[in-house]
Amino acid sequence: AWFSLGHAYISANQFDKAIAAFDKVMELVGKHAELLGPKATAMYYKAGQQMTPQIQAIIDESLAMDPQDPSTLLLVGMNSFFLADYKKAITSWQTILDSDRTDVDRAALMNAIETANLRMQAETTGMPDDDVHKQAAVGKKSVSIAISISPELAAKASPEDTIFVFARATEGPKVPLAATKVSASALPVTVTLDDSTGMGGDAKLSQATSVEVIAVLSKHGNIKPQAGDIQGKINKVIVGETANLVLDTQVQ
Questions:
Q1: How many whole angstroms separate alpha carbon 140 and alpha carbon 136?
Q2: Whether residues 158 and 204 fall in one domain
Q3: Strand duo 242-247 + 249-250: pairing
Q4: What's the angle, vertex CA 59, arms to CA 54 and CA 63, rounded to 5?
Q5: Domain ends where: 68, 95, 125?
Q6: Which of 10, 85, 183, 251 has an alpha carbon 20 to 30 Å from 72's alpha carbon atom?
């Protein structure tokens, strides 16, 4: 019961309660990978999808017990994908597929792997560029994001910097649905994300009800955030609407 409750709390974004629930189960039955993985996942979401040494230690402990634990490998893959380490993401997800586990969504994993492969290809061929991205046809589902930078960080931006913008689903696998880029010299600027800036695979922005939007002003020309870059995020945008995003956090 506590195990199911823990997963329910994760779904409800009540991460402290989820962590407590998994700890309660481990008090009763001892540490197991299938409990450590969900606990690490709850901690990861609580930390704003940032990997911490404490979370990594739990992941390492879980995989030492069971190198094929699905919940732990899903987390490793998701975090690797977000950090643009697509090879590691694919390896993690493929390990789950190669196992004999029946309690996993194999179709979703295959779609995630396909998306990661497409992103690796995009690393060399480039992402859709909003400067040349044609506006979506009337009636097409999209999100328009008005991007600005906070006054206190404006002086740290250079016209040579690149802003990467991507939207990912608020439900299900946290894989990007669409992405674009624009020169920082255009700030403040409005970009449009839709299926024409999609990442490939079956998951499409037009099929989502809402998305999370993240923007990274990169001083290194890389979508993976690095020290000195400036980020901004909108937790939820309804598809079809317009929202304002402020670049207000410098990566340390």
A1: 6
A2: yes
A3: unpaired
A4: 150
A5: 125
A6: 251
